[in-house]
Amino acid sequence: MNLNSLDKILSAHPSFRLTQAKKAVFCDLMEDWDEVTSLPKEIRGALAKDCPLEIDSAMQTSADGQTNKAAITLADGARVETVLMRYAERNTVCVSSQVGCAMGCDYCATGQMGFTRDLTADEMVEQVIFFARILKKENKRVSNVVFMGMGEPFLNYDNVMAAIDAINDKNGLNIGSRHIAISTCGIVEGIKKLADEPKQVSLAISLNAPNDSLRSELMAVNKRYPLKNILRAVDDYIAKTKRKVMFEYLMIAGVNDSIEQAKALAKIMAKPLYMVNLIPYNFTGKYKASSAAQVQKFRDVLVEAGIYTTQRKRFGRGIKAACGQLVAGLG
Ligand code: SF4
């Protein structure tokens, strides 16, 4: 798909033609300009040539049918992965914001592939449209979008914000901003900027360790943005927005899942509107997942300390669609 020249092609026509074309793409989720019969044939022909609606993709589905992962090939041949998670009450698309990632987190397959380029806003919206089209055929819709796929969203800030505007557009995909979340490895400038946005999107921080020494081992970015700075930025964000912040904590056996570490985590998380989400580690080559029993003990410590704690359901492991497993390619 390439919508870059949509405005340009239609600039010579009355403005309602652009409105019709956008409705066809974002609202009616059309896959072929030829079927957009509200537009005259010659406009359809020009759009089919310069703004194709086909999405070049390969999709896998998990054995339980709850997860779909798509590898999308972009106009320059770069590939990104995007995931649909089907919950009983919602359908969440996990969007990639970059091709690869420069952050190099030790537990993450994307980090191990290095950084190629930022995605444009259209390329991020395309990932949502891809699954919106599939769900439409099942009389369902995308209800939530999380920027938790490949890449660090705050290092592609402006394009991510433009993508959110398009995803949020009432005349288009119409996904409410409260149903959109951004997850960061802790880019302080991004947290500060988001605090000043009028958008009501949710913020999540990939934490994964209760202290700087362990966090720096797992996440090189911690050397640049230590915990103290991240938590100060989060406190300012909460003071300005009055919104909850989710701290994600990947449970890695023998690395960050001891009772002492749970107690240390409880200490720094004991603040209003802080929430902890414990995430099962998914194998990417180096570490092992914590046992269910250890996760439960870890969780008990947090809950007893009064920390609001949730546990993320495991999604799409069989097709490498789970957290930290996305790379450019299927298989
Ligand atoms: S966890 Fe996120 S920030 Fe870290 S390397 Fe992976 S994609 Fe990049």
Secondary-structure map with pairings?
Blueprint: H1 6-10, H2 15-27, H3 41-50, E1 57-61, E2 67-73, E3 79-86, E4 91-94, E5 98-100, H4 109-112, E6 115-118, H5 121-136, E7 144-147, H6 157-168, E8 180-184, H7 188-195, E9 202-206, H8 212-218, H9 221-224, H10 227-241, E10 245-251, H11 259-269, E11 274-280, H12 292-304, E12 308-311
Parallel strand pairs: 4-7, 7-8, 8-9, 9-10, 10-11, 11-12
Antiparallel strand pairs: 1-2, 2-3, 3-4, 5-6
Helix pairs in contact: 5-6, 7-10, 11-12
Nutshell version of this structure?
Helix content is 36%, strand content 19%.
Written account of the structure:
Helix content is 36%, strand content 19%. The mean pLDDT is 93. The longest helix has 16 residues. Helix 11 packs parallel to helix 12. The strands form two sheets. Strands 1-2-3-4-7-8-9-10-11-12 form a ten-stranded mixed β-sheet, with helices on one face. The protein has a two-stranded antiparallel ribbon with strand order 5-6. It has two domains: 45 residues, no CATH class; 263 residues, TIM Barrel (Alpha-Beta Barrel), CATH 3.20.20.70. It is built from twelve helices and twelve strands. The protein is of the alpha/beta class. The two termini are 23 Å apart. Iron/sulfur cluster binds next to helix 4.
